[in-house]
TrEMBL record:
All copies of domain Cytidyltransferase-like, residue ranges: 5-125
Extent of the signal sequence: none
Origin species: Nitrobacter vulgaris
PANTHER family listed in its UniProt record: FAD SYNTHASE
Name this protein carries in UniProt: Glycerol-3-phosphate cytidylyltransferase
Domain of life: Bacteria
Coiled-coil ranges from the UniProt annotation: none
Pfam families the UniProt entry points to: CTP_transf_like
NCBIfam families named among the record's database cross-references: cyt_tran_rel (TIGR00125)
Keywords: Nucleotidyltransferase, Transferase
Amino acid sequence: MNNVITYGTFDLFHVGHVRLLQRLRSLGDRLIVGCSTDEFNDIKGKKSVIRYNERAEILSSCKYVDLVIPETTWEQKCSDIQKHDVRIFAMGDDWVGKFDHLSAETGCIVTYVSRTSNISTTDIKGYLRKIDSDTIASMKNKIDHLRAQLEKY
């Protein structure tokens, strides 16, 4: 069996995630996804909108994913590759070169696949922050306008 493994946070699950998982699954017979726990994300300086258990449940429901495991450390990749008899370690192309050492350490093939352009969790979070900032600015303008109206009386 040709097992493929990947890792990620998979917060705010979107079509880019689906397409990435589809590409990764097409590389082998079975796709294993290491989903970053909330505690590991804290170590990485990331904050997820959706909690780990719910992200893992979403991933488990995806037809391209055969197994979800918790990612708790950077170092666990070698042991996961051995434990799950992984032939291919694959990540999105924004990680090119970062995991090449795993090939020599475990004998697996390391590959990087393209991500879906024009969509990312980071972009979605930025958009949501902008909406929030725009909403706050609009509310401040309305309050200032009301104050000005009240001062007339």
